[in-house]
Write a structure and sequence with these properties.
2 copies of one chain form a homodimer. The first copy, chain A, is an alpha/beta fold. Chain A is built from 6 helices and 11 strands. In chain A, helix 3 links the parallel strand 5 and strand 6.
Chain lengths: 256, 256
């Protein structure tokens, strides 16, 4: 029984090392993560191509680095290495993962995969005030308080498990977090981004397109977005993987 | 106001043409889909590379084919083409998308993206008795009854919208569907797959790994899995994009 550490920013991310520092005092830890940056892959996995795996130096141990997505990395660790982790910790992601947008996050996607395998999972993400930390794989970001917060939450989950109906915790840590930053239980805000598409022209005169996410201003009190971005508190959102809407549909008659 | 048609099997899939046949009598339809097979990409999108778009002949019209994921295709259609569709129909996917596994499905992932933009969405998938239809882009699969089922459900959603709390419908059509196949409202089964990793050795003697999903035998009455795979009925699962677990967590104290 070990703790499995995964992420979506790749094996070289300082956030992955922070998670290792957070959970190492709690139990044996195995690290298995994508070799490259895989942000935005959600719960995606490789169906049409196989994955490659290599071992790379990682602090005082070695990590498994895969050519696949976060979910591929998790599945390799569990089935390929025959691990039965008692907890999966995903992160610490470089950048927050909040609102119903979380299903596009690789950090949360792999925690959903773990949960669907019956393994308690925690996705941990940290707000960055600018994206430079992300570009530089988080080197230079101060994770010291985030490490303590992550360790405290992981320790509690190891001791007590989850309440019935909870499959994973989505944890978000604000920029400037301190050891005594308040922690709140939140709900997922409905939407975070008002996206648009930016067209550019390449040197050959042909168009190409970038997705650009713009943070929406519609925020409710008690939501994860309000907690992290407006109050600067740590947000814990209990997540269920069952997306069945809690409604009685038969009377609506969506068939003949 | 149009209907936007997307999928994850790519613009050449016969299932995408089936959706076009299904909704064409209902309203103007725009098709925007990945140029290549993008099964298993969930709600993933392109953050680190731009997308390319081209127009390709498609039945009596043209379709937009993108280098990105299903979500990229949707975002291009909405923001790049400035579409405001009144309905998004994703599919018809070659192969069912059932259980809490749906978050790894590109077919469902893009419907979740549409729903998060406030657009009613229907994800439609069809069971194939073997994977040959998928390999051959569905050519040779009889979609005639599936077209009628899809048209009926889309028509009803256009007329009546969704019940409160429902963001999208996940529709699954059994192999061998007929026009009078019963339609049931279902819940998401908890898990569908007991996966494993298969190791193979390449011609240079190095290992590579395939994910292999094996259908679990744990099935409850009333679930989408039971409905489609066991009874051979059409399944409609109402989906909420809000995965916040319906529990009161504060008393569990996952912090100090």
């Amino acid at each position: 029984m070990t703790i499995l550490i995964v992420n979506d920013d790749g094996v070289h991310s300082a956030g992955l090392h922070a998670t290792y520092h957070a959970v190492r005092p709690l139990d044996e830890a195995v690290i298995c993560a994508p070799h490259e940056q895989k942000t935005g892959t959600g719960r995606g996995f490789s169906l049409h191509k196989p994955i490659r795996v290599k071992q790379v130096p990682f602090d005082d141990t070695t990590a498994y680095a895969t050519s696949g997505t976060p979910v591929d990395s998790l599945l390799y660790a569990i089935h390929g290495l025959d691990l039965r982790p008692r907890l999966v910790v995903s992160g610490i992601n470089l950048g927050e993962n909040i609102s119903t947008e979380i299903t596009s996050s690789g950090t949360v996607g792999v925690a959903i995969e773990a949960a669907s395998l019956g393994i308690p999972a925690i996705a941990v993400s940290m707000e960055l005030k600018n994206d430079m930390g992300k570009l530089e794989e988080g080197h230079g970001v101060d994770f010291s308080a985030a490490v303590l917060v992550t360790r405290r939450i992981a320790s509690r989950v190891l001791a007590s498990g989850f309440p019935p109906g909870v499959d994973l915790l989505n944890v978000n840590i604000p920029h400037g977090v301190r050891d005594d930053t308040p922690v709140e239980y939140t709900f997922l805000e409905r939407n975070l981004y008002d996206s648009h598409i930016e067209e550019r022209i390449d040197p050959m005169g042909r168009p190409y397109y970038w997705n650009v996410g713009i943070v929406s201003q519609k925020v409710r009190h008690g939501s994860d977005v309000h907690c992290v971005l407006h109050k600067g508190h740590v947000s814990i959102t209990p997540i269920s993987i069952d997306m069945t809407a809690p409604v009685e549909c038969a009377s609506y008659g969506y068939h003949r």
